[in-house]
Structures are given as C-alpha cells and as structure tokens.
C-alpha cells in the first residue's frame, strides 16, 4: 500500500472493543459484517431508478452497490489504497436508503420535517450503528471508525453538531472542521457517481425511455460510441444495438476509471501527503481531470432532464411517495400496526421513519395495501 493509504493496524478503532481476528484485518471484518447484515440483503428489492416490479434486469440498490464496489476496488489497487476499506464503504453506502429511491427519501424527509428530517446517508450510519441487532453485547455492527466515516458521505451542520455532541471528535467532526475523509472514502464517493451514470444509461435505454440517438448528443457517451462503431462497423446493424450500447458504456467506464487514476496520481504527487492523516488535511485529492469532470457533469444533467424527470418515472415515483406518506401517517396514528420494537420506542416519529426506511419496495406496497386497501401498482 501507499504511505497515504488507510492502515487497519492504525485504525481509530470501534466503539466497542473486540478481540482482533487471526486471519482478517479490521476493514475485512467490516466488509464481512456488512455483507451478512439484514439491511444489505434488503437492497435487492429497493429501487435504483426503476421500481422492482417494472422488470427483472433493472438495477437495484444491491446491484448498484456491487458495481460501485467493483469500480472502487480496481481504482484503489491502481492507487495503492486499501481495497478492503473502499469495498466496505461502497457496499454500505446505501444501507439507509428508503424504498422507491430518492423519491421515497424526499417523501420521508417531508414527513419528518418537524422531527429532525430524514437523510439516507445519515440513516446508513444509523443502520450500522444502531438498527442492526446481531450481537449480544451491543446494537449495530460495531464497524471501525474509518468505515463509518466513509458511510457518512454527506451531513448538514446541524446533524454534524448533534453527532459530535454524542461522539466528540468522531465521524462527523470533519463536517465542522472542514477536513476530508480518508482517500478510500473519497474514492467510494466518486465510484458511486461513475457507476450510476453508466448503469442509468443502460437501464434508461432498456426501459425505452432513452434512445442511443438521444445519447449521441452527450459528448462522454458519443465519443465512445463513435469509437466502437469505427472499430466494429457491424455494430451499426439494427440487430447489434444492444452490443453497441454495452461496448459504448464499457469504453466510457474505462475512460473514467483511467482518468481518475491519472488525475488522482497527479494530485497526490503535487500534495505529497506523508500519511493517511496528512491526506485528510489537503482537500479532496481523489478526482476527475478537469475535462472529464465537465463531461461527467454534462451527462448527469442529461440524465436528470431526460430520465429522472421523464413523465413515466415521475408518475411511478409519485405513487411511491404516496405509499411512504400514507404509511407514515398510519403508523404514527396507530402504532399498534408497528412491530413491538418500533411501537414501544420513545421517539415514535423516528421509529416510524426507521421502520419505513428499512422496507423493500414490495414490502412497502404490501403493507400499504393491507393498511389502506389501495393497490397503487399492478
């Protein structure tokens, strides 16, 4: 590993001390705990862009997390960063996501407006710190500081202050003193962006909501599509459309990965951090080059306008938001409908939010139909 990589032997530790494992480092244990937890399994039935019932081949939060982990590991190896840590962060980064994707999060945040709000990054930390019940001595998965810090990708100042009051100098401190997380956490964050840009193109075309002709107007995609056609002219045949899409996305992914490696190596060479702690004080160092950043931003804007705001996606996610809002209102008014561990909580609104956030799409739909008699999706 490079001198600026996170070293599990120098980890800031866990909230509850554990005996070291004979064959696994601390970050390996974090990854393994995440893979075996209930919240990770539930990601298989949580929306990425398209709801689970809309097709078997669309990405879910689980397949997205696996793709992020794969990209992050490959880049980490090239940069000499700790692969186990970046993989653990990547696999856990969406554990707190609600059913129905970002639309579900927005609905739950609105429901919780008078009770502290809801944010999925904060909820992911809450899952691994509190909501998983797998050990006799404590709640949560008892992950290392470095993994928990990476999971908390975003945090408002108010939430950071609340976490800091409970955990002085802990995972939220960087949002108050304006330092950066580990390089591995920075990498997991960027790999997340690379993954969802690529797979949302694939899912968008598969759904019929995007066409390759539309995507030809997006420079990051168009240049690699053109290169694929130049090298493999047969891909222009109508029967080869799916292969052309895959080859274009593959080349686009590779270009972004190599760009991150080159730009980050240059940033690290210029900053010359002596160790992992020094890297935190030097600003964001894992990055795209300037040209690739501009192209990635243009792609995100295209996807936002043409896919995420497509009338069919908006109409579907609006029904998902209705499910979340009505579940929240029903559980708050009739807590007997909740499992006992949630119904008996002192902070009932937060307990209701925890319960709903942990649901898969299909469980939320079944619960909504049971409680309201409505079937909003075929």
From TrEMBL:
- Supply the NCBIfam families for this chain: dGTP_triPase, PRK01286.1-1
Q: What InterPro entries has UniProt attached to this entry? A: dGTPase, dGTPase-like, dNTPase_2, HD/PDEase_dom, HD_domain, PHydrolase_assoc_dom
Which keywords does this chain's UniProt record carry? Hydrolase
Source organism, top-level taxon: Bacteria
Q: HAMAP family from the entry?
A: dGTPase_type2
Report the coiled-coil segments.
none
Recorded family membership? Belongs to the dGTPase family. Type 2 subfamily.
Pfam families given for it?
A: HD, HD_assoc
Instruction: Read off the CDD domains from this record.
Output: HDc
Instruction: Please list the residue ranges annotated as the HD domain.
Output: 61-197
Tell me which SUPFAM superfamilies the record gives: HD-domain/PDEase-like
Q: What is this protein called?
A: Deoxyguanosinetriphosphate triphosphohydrolase-like protein
Residue ranges of region Disordered?
1-25
């Amino acid at each position: 590993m490079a001198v600026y990589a996170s070293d599990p032997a120098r980890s800031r530790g866990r909230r509850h001390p554990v005996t070291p494992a004979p064959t696994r480092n601390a970050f390996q244990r974090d990854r393994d705990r995440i893979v075996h937890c209930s919240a990770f399994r539930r990601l298989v039935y949580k929306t990425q862009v398209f709801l689970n019932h809309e097709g078997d081949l669309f990405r879910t939060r689980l397949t997205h997390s696996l793709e992020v982990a794969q990209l992050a590991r490959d880049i980490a190896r090239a940069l000499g960063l700790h692969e186990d840590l970046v993989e653990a962060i990547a696999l856990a980064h969406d554990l707190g996501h609600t059913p129905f994707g970002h639309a579900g999060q927005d609905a739950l945040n609105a429901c919780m407006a008078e009770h502290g709000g809801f944010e999925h990054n904060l909820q992911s930390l809450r899952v691994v710190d509190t909501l998983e019940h797998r050990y006799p001595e404590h709640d949560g998965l008892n992950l290392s500081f470095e993994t928990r810090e990476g999971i908390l990708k975003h945090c408002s100042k108010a939430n950071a202050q609340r976490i800091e009051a409970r955990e002085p100098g802990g995972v939220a401190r960087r949002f108050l003193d304006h330092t950066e997380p580990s390089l591995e956490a920075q990498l997991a964050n960027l790999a997340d962006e690379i993954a969802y840009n690529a797979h949302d193109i694939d899912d968008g075309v598969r759904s019929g909501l995007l066409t390759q002709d539309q995507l030809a107007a997006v420079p990051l995609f168009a240049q690699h599509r053109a290169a694929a056609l130049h090298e493999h002219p047969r891909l222009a045949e109508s029967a080869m459309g799916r292969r052309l899409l895959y080859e274009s996305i593959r080349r686009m992914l590779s270009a972004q990965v190599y760009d991150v490696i080159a730009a980050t190596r240059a940033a690290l060479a210029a900053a010359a951090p002596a160790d992992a702690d020094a890297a935190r004080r030097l600003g964001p160092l894992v990055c795209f080059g300037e040209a690739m950043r501009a192209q990635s931003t243009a792609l995100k804007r295209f996807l936002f306008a043409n896919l995420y705001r497509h009338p069919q996606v908006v109409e579907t996610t609006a029904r998902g938001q209705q499910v979340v809002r009505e579940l929240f209102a029903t559980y708050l008014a009739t807590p007997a409908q909740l499992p006992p561990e949630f119904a008996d909580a002192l902070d009932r609104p937060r307990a209701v939010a925890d319960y709903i956030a942990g649901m898969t799409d299909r469980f939320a739909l079944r619960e909504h139909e049971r409680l309201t008699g409505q079937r909003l999706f075929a």
